[in-house]
Amino acid sequence: MALADAFLAPLGLAALLAVVPIVVLYLVQPDPRRVELPTLRLLLDDAERDASNPLLERLRRSLLLVLQLLVVVALALALAGPYVSVSESQTVEETVIVLDGSASMGVQTDGGTRFTAAVAAAREATTGTNAVVFAGRESRIVLRSGGGDEVARTLDELAVVDTPTDLGAAVSQAASIAGENARIVVLSDFADDTGWTGAVRSARARDLQVDLRQFAGGGAANVGIVDRSFTGSNATLSVKNFGDAAVTRSVTLGNQRRSVTLGPGDLERVSLAVPAGGGRARLSPGDDFPTDDAAYVAAPADPTVDVLLLTNDRNRYLATALSVIDEVDLTVDQPPTTVADGYDVIVYSNLDPERLLRSNVAAGRDVIEAGGGVAVVAQPSPPDRLGDLLLLAPSGVASNPSVGRVTTGELTRGIDFPPPERYLTGTLRAGTPLVRTGDGTPLVATQQRGAGRVLYYGTVVGDDPFRFNYQYPVFWKRATFYLAGRDPLPTLNRETGGRLRFANETSVETPDGTVSARLVPLDRVGFYATGGRRIGVSLYSEAESDVAAQSLDARDDGTGVTSREEERRVPRPLTPFVALGALLVAVGELAYLRRRGDL
């Protein structure tokens, strides 16, 4: 066996040469002066007759020499770095646990879920020093350094989220905090086929141990709702079969029921009317992954928007744009008239100033106070009676401007406003301009007034090229919902993984309880409510619903990622133990000298 097979630095054994001068000094040192006592002579004669080799007998009797030789030998061995070969896993001092908390980890299996099984395994994977990275909606370090008790308390506070996650980002984050002699333990179902493989290869390239432990029980016959769309007051749900056998499912929403038969991998769309106030669409029977068996559909309690168009010269383009909105119940009337109560929106357009009654304007103010809205369309001579309902203080009419800055918002997003032929000039009394001409004159402006809203549209009726554009009805549909304080169905229904943002700290009722914050993550499926607004949040992720993950041991996709590292043998240095032995022998030598009286 070569010295390198037992020592990290064999050159350190050269220190053994120090044994030679120590032995030589003991051999050449003069004998002590002998004094013969008659009473002991007989005994000494017998001892001399028994000694076959006086030199060896001298060395044997010199305990001090033996102790000094042992110290030198131990120090020489320590300098040489003795070691034994052990499995690399036995040298781990730090463990970084990556725990997958994505929606698919909520699949039910063996009396629990994949997540509960992964948490149990995480408790058993701890070493002396540990860190925990949680892969939820975003990966985050929930414990940077702690022992087994700290890990247990941290795991108790974690729960699966109903969102997709980026497992690769979590592995990369774990590698960034892992020390030199650390391992990374990834606990996941690995339902995402390739998103994490690059991060694992990168960590292993840094010579970090990466142990992949898969929890993929259950979910083999999953059927889920993977998408939704809205047309008017109808919701279309996409249902997909991820199993290997044909299945039949019932889809219910309110008092409606539809039955669909799906072959392996089939996707079917089911359209259902959204009931007032919304509801929960469900698949029955359910399966091992209940998260995608339901879709939470939010809708206004009163789905109809009652709109009154007050005009003395009917603008058929505007009237048509309003009438084609499924949710709008449009009434067109001419002043002077009596305005009944109950309208959500009143639009003033092409008015005869002499025929507009004070009560007609007062009706608009009442609508605003009740939480509705008023829109005023520009005309060459707007009635003074409108007062502050007209956000612009008019100064005249101009023509053929260029369109300047357009503020991106719910009303203007994705809409191209053409330059008007004629428009009303002036300065804004109040509100926020959304569309302006090149010289800064507002063409579209809005104002939040108490519980209600006001909108100004500055292009003169009859000289508005936008009325011929296919986006014209889109704009007025958005404007109507904005003025009525109604969010359209796509706005009220979100996918998990997003956030609700508020200008100020707001109390929001979530599926997990009430929170007060300016930013509320949508991590759980269910309804989120604040004030009179309710938002439905569902998974809607085809990738996350595909919960049947391939076994890591059966992977053959060219990624080069295996479930565990190949078992490697690494040296475990014994230097501290040998040095400790040398120290103990040196202490023994001192004790012997003291006992002999030399100290």
Automatic annotation (TrEMBL):
Residue span, VWFA domain: 95-190
Limits of the DUF7408 domain: 306-479
Organism for this UniProt entry: Haloplanus salinus
Keyword entries, A-Z: Membrane, Transmembrane, Transmembrane helix
Domain of life the protein comes from: Archaea
Sequence ranges assigned to domain DUF7406 in this UniProt record: 486-537
TM spans (from-to): 6-28, 63-84
Domain DUF7407 residue range list: 223-296
Record's protein name: VWA domain-containing protein
A Pfam family per the record: VWA_2
Domain Aerotolerance regulator N-terminal, chain residue ranges per copy: 6-82
